[in-house]
Amino acid sequence: MVPSTSRTVRAASAVSTARATPAARSSDQGLGLLTAHADYPALRAALGDPILDPELLALALTHRSYAYEHGGLPTNERLEFLGDSVLGVVVTETLYRTLPSLSEGRLAKLRAAVVNARALAGVGRELDLGRHIKLGRGEESTGGREKASIVSDTVEALIGAIHLSGDIAESSRVVHALFDPLIEQATALGAGLDWKTSLQELTAERGLGVPGYVITDEGPDHMKTFTARVKVADRLYGHGVGHSKKEAEQAAAETAYVELTGEASTAPGS
Fold first, then answer.
1. 3-state SS, residue 73
2. Architecture of 5-188 per CATH?
3. Which of 153, 156, 170, 194 is catalytic?
4. Of the residues 55, 84, 139, 249, which is catalytic?
């Protein structure tokens, strides 16, 4: 079980708890030009209908490529900076409270497993965030809506926008809703790191050697899709697909880990 949002609120008071005033929320010039009467009801619903200023929401969705192509509009990068800090505080405090026996080093590794570009991009894809992001023509033509870096940065910008629109209680509520499943998964996952690390520890424990990855790719250079399988003791396990080799390897490691642990649980005498 993860701690209540109220505990996170108390522990996260170092991140501004003051509700932003309308003047503060509208301080970036050009915000009104971004809103264009779009309220993104589907995205709001996926986020749990948080307090979210329309102008800040539009800003959170504005990638720098779009801003530059439209006369230098504000970008979501400042909100991303804020959201990264809010996310870090909430996740760190949750791990601290729920895992009192772990050392600082182990807690740091667990946090890294939850707050990383791949995990954030996964959250963004669950929200179907890619279709809402404002991109320039160049990024649009090279598959920017599916790029983990762009999607993950936009997730952080959204958290920043929610924090400024409401307060730490509101942003914590959203972070818990989106990231508690990842925290629980990371806690239960072998070493509590990432799937590749946990798979390597599992194979070492069983004397199977170091896993290898068999990678294939298809598509043009700017929109390649990578497919990975894991080779363990001359056998292939798992299957993963991603827009980068790292993403495909992580997905393959996850399925291979599940396959190997499933084999152990069904072996005679287990």
1. coil
2. Orthogonal Bundle (1.10)
3. 156
4. 84
CA 256 to chain centre: 22
Q: What pLDDT is attached to residue 265?
A: 52
Phi, psi of 13 (to 5 degrees): -65, -20
Cα 110 to Cα 98: distance, rounded to the nearest angstrom = 12
Q: Provide the residue ranges of all domains of the chain, joining segments of one domain with +.
A: 5-188, 195-266
Q: What does pTM read for this prediction?
A: 0.70
- 84 catalytic? Reply is yes
Which residues, other chains included, contact 151 with Cβ-Cβ below 8 Å and sequence gap of 6+?
Answer: 120, 121, 124, 125, 129, 130, 133, 145
CA dist., res. 37 & res. 245, Å (int): 39
What is 110-147 written as a DSSP string? Answer: HHHHHSSHHHHHHHHHHTTGGGG-B--HHHHHTTGGG-
Q: What is the pLDDT of residues 216-235, one digit of tens each?
A: 999 888 788 999 999 999 99
234 included as an active-site residue = no
In terms of CATH architecture, what is 195-266? 2-Layer Sandwich (3.30)
